[in-house]
Amino acid sequence: MNEGRALTSPIKRDDGYGYELALRLAVARLVEIKDIAEQCRCCGAQFLKSEKTISLDYLNQTYLIKYPEAEVTLQDTAEPVTLVDKILLLHYVTQAKGTPLSGQLISFKELAESGYFRTFYARAIKPLVTYFGKEPERLLEMAGLLGGRRADFGDVSVTVNALSLVPLTLVLWKGDAEFPPEATIMFDRTITDYLPTEDIIYLCQNTSWRLVKLLKLSDNNRVKRSAAKK
Q1: pTM assigned to the model
Q2: For the chain, what is the mean pLDDT?
């Protein structure tokens, strides 16, 4: 059995023991890495040698991982990091192969078994359709807050570097009288050299809901400003 594979447990929908086990295995894998600076290069992170800390960006925020303790924190804030985000970041750092981006985009159906798609759609695609389907231009506005850049697909699309070497391209179709709005998320063909399928689903889910959260915050602020003017 491949030793690295044996120390991998993907993120799954499990609120208890499964997450704790996945975290322990991810920490064990981090400890086993001998050349951590080289592994950081493979995932586009930076190893701060004097501080024995890995610095990497995730959805436009900087996270710090102590090496080899694997303590994960957010830079410049006391906001706690969720258990699932800790697992995701440790998986990304420890499993990254350093494969250069290909520039070739694929759909979820091209990288995973068909049985996964229903889960992927419900958790990652449906929020985009529900909250941005009628106002797709607002997807560009919110994605810009995450460092996103306009892409050239569908009616509106944007590419967000969720992780340094894992760009996600979110695409929206407005729909019309005959067809409802629809969306998809595309990936560089190299994505499986950085994350397993279950982690990809979680990453897309978290990206979509982060955009929804930004949208709601923007709308709330707009209402407050409007009320203040009256």
Answers
A1: 0.90
A2: 91
